[in-house]
Each structure stands twice: as C-alpha cells, then as structure tokens.
Amino acid sequence: MNRRKLIGTLGAASLAGLWPLACRAATPRRVIVVGAGMAGATAAKYLRLWSDRGIDVTLVEPAAQYTSNIMSNLVVTGQYPPSILSQGYTSLSRKYGITLLQGSVTAVEPGGELGAWKVTVRNGQKTVTRWCERVVLAPGIQFDPVPSTADPAVAAPILHAWQAGAQTTQLRDALARMPATGTFVMSIPKAPYRCPPGPYERACVVADYLRRNKPGAQLVVLDANPDIMAEKENFSRAFQQLYGSNLSYRPNHVVRSVAATAGQAGGTVTVDIVVRDAAGAETVTGSETFSAQVLNVIPPHRAGAIVHTLGLADATGFAPVDGRSFESTVPGRAGIHVIGDASKTTLPKAGHVGNQGAKICADAIVRAFSAQPPVPAPTANSACFSPVSNQLASWLTAVYQYRQDPATGAWRYVALDQVTGATGATEAQVPSTRQFSMMRTWYGTLMSDSFA
After folding, report:
1. Which of 99, 180, 283, 368 is deepest in the core (most CB within 10 A)?
2. Radius of gyration for the chain, computed over Cα atoms and rounded to the nearest angstrom
3. How do strand 282-292 and strand 141-143 relate by DSSP bridges?
4. Cβ 369 vs Cβ 22: under 8 Å
5. Alpha carbon distance 293, 186 (integer Å)
6. 257 within 8 A of 285, measured Cβ to Cβ
7. Taking Cα atoms as reference points, which of 351, 342, 423 lies closest to residue 384?
8. For 261-312, how does the pLDDT look when each residue is reduced to its tens digit (9 = 90+)?
9. What is d(CA 190, CA 275) in angstroms, rounded to the nearest whole number?
10. Rounded to the nearest 10 degrees, how much is the dihedral formed by the CA atoms of 423, 221, 67, 213?
11. Chain centroid offset of residue 437 CA
C-alpha cells in the first residue's frame, strides 16, 4: 500500500511512522507486548515491520482471539452475526514472526543482566518468564463494580456489553425477548470512557430496533455527563427527529445503585440528578428510580489491572505517558510504555486511536534502539462511522498533533482542522446509506491493518 492510499484509508498516522527506521543489532532487541487488542496487535506488527525484523517481539494475550468492540452495537440489534467481531492472531505469527504467548502477565520486574525487564506470564498452573529491553502494555480497561442492592447469588448479571464478547450476545437476546411495551434503560458513565460516540450509537440503533420491532416500547438514556459527549449535532438530531417520544435522553443522571431482577435482564436503577458549577463541582439536586425490562448499565472504567499492579496509574485511573513515545512518566518505569485505552492522553479512547498510538509507540521504540529520540510532534488520526439506524451512518474524523500549550507549558494532543489549522473536527453531519455501506470497508481495512 503506498503512502497516499495509506493516509486515505486509515487517516493520518504518525508522520514518523511513514518513514520508519531499520533496526539491526548484533544481538536482537527484545520487546514484550502485553495485550493483543487493537493497540497491542498493531504495536507488535509494526515493531517487526519497521525494524526489518531486527526486534524480537513476544505478544502476550490470555484470549485465543480478539473480539472487536467496533461494530458490536449492530450485533446487539441482531443486524450482524457475532462472527464479524472476531479476529485471529495467526497472521501476526506466520507473516511477521511474532512469538505468541497465551496467558496473563502477573509481574514486570527489573531484569538484571538478562535484560532491563523480567516479565512473568501465567497460564493456568504453568508459569513462564521472559526478559526484554522494552515492555509495551496494552491491557485495555477494567470496569468499576456496579453498586447493586440485589443479592448477587440470585440476581442476573448487570449487562454493560462494553467489552464485546458473551455480554454482547446476552444483551442481544435480552433485547429480542423484551416485551412489546417494555422499557430498555441504559446508562453512560462520566468521561473519560471507551469510545466517546459509542453509547449514543447504541442508543440510536436500539431505538431504531424498537421502532421497527416493538413500536410500543421505550428507551431511556441516563447520561452522567452534562450533554452528549461526541457528535452532538448528529446524535441530537437523531434523538429528536428519528425517535422522538420513544427515546428519553436524561443528562446529569449519575447511577447511584442498581437492583437487578432475579433470573432476568431487567430491574431498577436509581440515579442522582446533579448540577455542575463553572468549575465542574457537582451538587446533587434529587434522585429518581427507573424500572426496566432490560438494564444496560455501562459502569465507569479505568486502565487494565496490570497498570495498577505496577503503580503506573494516577488518580484518574489511567496511566500518564509521554505522548511522543507513550513511555510511562512514572519515575523508575523507563522502558515501559502504555498504549490504547489504558493510557492517559488527550486522545479519545477508541479502537482507531489505539491503532494510531501503537504506531507512534512502535516508531519511538525503533528509534530508541537506534539511539535516536522520538519524533517531537507526532500526529494521530481519530476516525469512525456512527450508525444512527439500521441503514444510516455518519462519518467523523479528526487529526491530532502533539503540541506544547504556550500558556501552561503542558504537552498534549490538540485536534486540528485539516484545512484551517483551527481546533476541531471534520464531521459528515447528515447520516446516509452510502456512509453506512462505507462503514464496513473502513472496519475491514482497520482490522486488516492491525491483525492481518
């Protein structure tokens, strides 16, 4: 794929990533990548490609295959089969010579003479130890417990389906079983959370499903944020013009507790109604309880467990990193990088962004092994299609550059308008059937770039 086609199909990757450096050493350099989702798989692949196989890469992952969160909302509504979400790791091994190690990392420690870091991996009763010069952590997220008043011994699981897999099909089945005049209640956690437009996409496609299959049913969306957090114009229009009275959107509604119905997918959810002052401080002004035949509570989340085990997270629950390389900024953790949803940057937490950040990280590591600094101002692209029905989707893309704030001196990724240079994003405001069709092409191209 030539450079022009790469930019056109995947968006602007790191500028450095377009001209990677070869890395050949007398003794091969070693990198262990922990987690084989969008970010981890991409990092492993491009470390091998851009070093001309001069870096030995081991990819550690407990699952036998990756299940994509992208497109999973359309699996919930039954439009696509679950198989569309599955990606294997065979190509990463056969085509690029990446060593696949199934298991979970339990420790990352100083490695002594055998390497900068010693990584311990456990799979059942078996424990394996590997040494490396660099560690890349891509563990994704973990969810905070949902405050439940129900007896966990008899209550059904409270479904979030925000990590695709078994809960995706469970929510699909619960939606299909929902009574024709039932109520579907979903919640959205406070930002930051995985995939900013994702919950609003789910609200749209579920509302569309109900309109077509259960026109007497209702959807209630409880948003802990003060307003729609992504593509506001697009989703506001869909909520009001496509779904009207069948969809009730409630901002500033923060989940306090949930009581699931024994043996079913429904129950009740109690929320605090809040107001926020100019500084963002919250005041609870009241509460409300909603009953539902289907509960879909997306809890707050934070970086995957290994990030916290290693002390790499700050008070936000995510790992602060140097945006030029995604290397941890925690003292004593030089050589450990955190990418994807687990990292703390001003980039959105999304699959396409995970792919982009992984390339920036991979390029920086290749350069480090050649005794060169990372690119000082890398760029990344965030792109996605947002379905608002079973036939319509919009398109959103934004380009970010790592820059220093002249007022505060802080370094961060800033969204740039591709034409004027002003902050912002380019959004196809009017959803169309053409963009819905293009969504499948974009998805397939993105998955191939990470896994094929």
Report:
1. 368
2. 22
3. unpaired
4. no
5. 11
6. no
7. 351
8. 866 788 899 999 999 888 888 999 999 999 999 999 999 999 999 999 999 9
9. 13
10. -120
11. 23
Tell which phi-psi region holds residue 252, choosing left (phi > 0), alpha (psi between -120 and 50) or beta.
left
Are 347 and 353 in contact by the 8 Å Cβ rule? The answer is yes
Element spanning 208, H or E: helix 198-213
> Using CA atoms, how far apart are residues 52 and 277, in angstroms rounded to an integer?
54
Pair of tokens at residue 197: 């437009």
Give the position of tokens 């040494």.
131
Non-local CB neighbours of 404 within 8 Å, separated by 6+ positions: 410, 411
Question: In whole angstroms, what is the distance from residue 386 CA to residue 202 CA?
Answer: 9
d(CA 14, CA 341): 18
Distance CA 68, CA 172 (A): 16
Beta carbons of 365 and 134 less than 8 angstroms apart: yes
The token pair that represents 216 in the structure block: 């007497």
Bridge partner residues of 143 (DSSP): 301
Q: What are phi and psi of 311, to 5 degrees?
A: 70, 30
pLDDT in tens, 55-102: 999 999 999 999 999 999 999 999 999 999 999 999 999 999 999 999
Q: Is the peptide bond before 387 cis (omega within 30 degrees of 0)?
A: no
pLDDT at 4: 33
Q: So what's the pLDDT on residue 156?
A: 64
435: which 2 tokens?
């963009």
Amino acid 151: pLDDT: 59
- Write down the pLDDT at residue 280: 83
**SS3 for 265?**
coil
Residue 230 gets the label, from left (phi > 0), alpha (psi -120 to 50) or beta, of beta
Contacts with 75 (C-beta within 8 Å, 6 or more apart), sequence order: 81, 82, 84, 85, 164, 168, 169, 172
Q: Which residue type occupies 430?
A: V
**Is residue 431 within 8 Å of residue 238, measured between CB atoms?**
yes
Q: State how far the Cα of 266 lies from the Cα of 404, in Å rounded to an integer.
A: 48
Q: How far apart are CA 334 and CA 38, in angstroms?
A: 23
Which stretches of the chain score pLDDT less than 70? 1-28, 149-156, 262-263, 417-429
